[in-house]
Amino acid sequence: MYNLPLTILKNEDWTYTVLSNIFSIVTEWDSIEEAILNWKEALSCHIEWLEKWDDEWLILQSFKNSFNTYVTV
User: Fold this and answer.
1) Cα separations (Å) of 67 from 16, 18, 26, 61, 70?
2) In angstroms, what is the C-alpha Rg of the chain?
3) How far apart are CA 24 and CA 11, in angstroms?
């Protein structure tokens, strides 16, 4: 189990956006709990897709690159 950093934003329309530089996954939902749950599901789906590559180096490289992604706002 890993602790991953997330950014949670409350939007003007009272929805919540959850984002992280882990594979650039962003989700939005009506509650914080649902937004985080959707983020976890999206991460799980992305990892499942990566595993289909069946190449450990590509998976590790993709994961490493996701930590080196920065956004300036």
Assistant:
1) 23, 16, 15, 10, 8
2) 13
3) 19
